[in-house]
Structure formats: C-alpha cells, structure tokens
C-alpha cells in the first residue's frame, strides 16, 4: 500500500507541508504542479519553489507572493488571520465562506481538490469563529493574508491528489509555547484557533519558545492524516524537506516520506444482491451513486433466477469504513429485499500519476507498482481529447507516448 508519512517534530505550517510534499514529485510532476498553481496569477498570486537550507539540510521553500509582495509567515498566517474587525471601513476584507470559496471554485483544478480545499477552509473558519465568539459567516480575513492562505491550502490538496497515496500518517505535532503578538493583543501559544483545530490530535510543546503550528497547518493535518503515530514500517521510496523561514538550533523543517507498507493487502466487504425487477437505466444509476459514495468497485452480472427469469446480480466492493453507508444506499436505490455480505482480502498495486508531453499535447500516465511488477497506462480521456483536437487516431497519440 502506498503511504505518505509527515514528520512534524518542528510543527506544521501550510507552506512547509506543501514544500515537503513537492519534494516527493518527480521532475515532470513538479513542473505540472507549478503550472497548475500559477493559474492563481490572475488574482496577483504567484507560487515559486525555492531552494532552502536549515542546519545544513537542503530542501524546498514554497514562496507565495501577492501582487509581488512576499509576506513573513508570522505576519500573514497569524496576525492577519486573527484580525476580525467587523466595521465597514475595511474595503479589502471579505467573508471566508464567500470570497475564498468563490476563488477556489474558479480554479482550473480537479473537483476533488477544490472540494477538499473548501472543506479545510471551513475547518479554519469554524475554529476562528469559536476562538473569537463570532458567527461563521462573520469571520473575515485580510485580502493579502487570505490569498496567501488559499495558495497554501490548495497547494497541499493538489499535491496529495497528484501523489495518490492510499493512506496518510503524521507524527505528533510540536506546537511551541509562550506568547505571540497579533492584532488582538498578546495571545498564548498555540493560538486559540490552532488549539481548537488540534483537538483530538497528539501534540507537544517542545523545548523551544515560539509558535510552531499555524491554524492552516493544523487544519491540513486534521483533514488529511488518518493516524498520528511514530513512522510505521515502510519501504521509503522518496523523502521531501519543507524548510521554514525562521532559524533555530534545530533544523526547521517538515519531512515527508513517500513509501510502501510491506503488506499491500486490505480487508474489504463484498455486498451482493439479485434483482429481477429493475431497468438497466435504474441499475446504472444505482451503480453511479455507489461509486460516488466511495465504493471500491461496482459491477453488474447477468444471471438467471427462479422460473428461468433473466435478472442481474449487483456487486459492490468497499472498505470497512464505508460498509454501513453503502448498505443503506443499495436498499435505497434498488428493489432488493436482502443483501449478502462476504469478507475478502484485496491485494493491490500502488498507483501514481505523471504527465507525458507529446507534440499533440499533454497526456496523463497512470503508473502501477507492486510485487515486482511495474505497469503504465495512458489516461483514455486525454488520448480521446487529443485525438479529436488533432484529427488523428488514438493509436497515433499512443505512438507518440511510446
């Protein structure tokens, strides 16, 4: 199973997490990531991957500029995010749940990336509203700080999508200790919004005074990490270092490991039912709803039931965490009166995706690895699109890839 492990011994901030994940991409993947992220340029936002160093360790810093101005993380990610004046004399403020969500929705990115980014922003806004005693729709961010934060959040969401890990782990998180100065005054570390976001997450103060975990970093970890523990047994394939801007005696970085667990097997449930009184269109709709809800696979098999009746067997494969939800959906969208459940072990190869450039255009390639085998396959939708755009056959596009 392909996994990512995030080492947060020096805390977590959006730019550091993004830079660490960026380091896990290959050359083509890095170029594609920067191209997609810099679609934000129409809002004055530019993302650059810069070489950085901390205590002799070389890594990456994802530098975000807004209208050509780079902002120190302390000012932008803390002071601006804790400024919630509600008067009418601030023309550059806008509501998180409106302005930011609108920006995210307009990005030319997969829907899953945009949905994840919007949900993470909701987590941040909810924590801020709890911390400052205001309603969710009253939370406001300054314009520059907001766009900087959008770039951080969207970067991490896009990187996780591109890396395609099946499970994400993180270490316990260093928060730092002491006090920090922001627009509201002197606040304790972790800041109130960060503390709310870290509820349920193992964390520790550490021996260095200061703020090590930002609200954005805490929200990203809360949303993506399945477990917080010491690094599990894994075969490390690649390591990325996200370097922070502050200097400490210890290396100021988030470290990301891309690897595989020794066991690529997982327990799955197989839910089956026989149906002889639904149309093909109705069955197809039911299958689509099951896929949308997270089924691993759904397929329909022609069978013959009692009295020689032509019928279908609907089979839905799912993880244990989706079992109850999908059982309910099968009963909701089919006419079956009963469902059979079988428990299986599912062996699978790890999967990644990268982009291949041809003179017809870019084609995404899906790479599968495991058990000593490596396979690559071009994304059909890309092949079909380029064939139509260039008035050639799919086979001609495939030849360019080879």
Commentary on this structure:
Helix content is 35%, strand content 33%. The protein has twelve helices and 23 strands. It has helices at residues 14-22, 27-37, 73-79, 96-106, 111-132, 143-163, 192-197, 215-224, 280-292, 323-333, 380-390, 394-401; strands spanning 2-7, 45-54, 57-66, 69-70, 94-95, 140-141, 167-170, 173-174, 176-177, 179-182, 185-188, 203-204, 210-211, 227-228, 235-243, 253-260, 265-275, 297-304, 310-319, 340-347, 350-358, 361-370, 373-378. The protein has a five-stranded mixed beta sheet. Strands 18-19-17-20 form a four-stranded antiparallel beta sheet, covered by helices on one side. A three-stranded antiparallel beta sheet has the order 2-3-4. The radius of gyration is 24 Å and the shape is globular.
> Largest sheet at a glance?
5 strands, mixed
Count of DSSP helices?
Answer: 12
The percent range for helix content is 25-40%
Order of neighbouring strands in the sheet with most strands: 14-7-1-16-15
Termini separation: 28 Å
Write down how many β-strands occur, each being a DSSP E stretch of 2 or more residues: 23
Principal-axis shape:
globular
Radius of gyration: 24 Å
Proportion of residues in β-strands: 25-35%
Average pLDDT works out at 86
Judged by helices, strands and strand pairing, the structural class is: alpha+beta
Low-confidence stretches: 72-94, 141-145
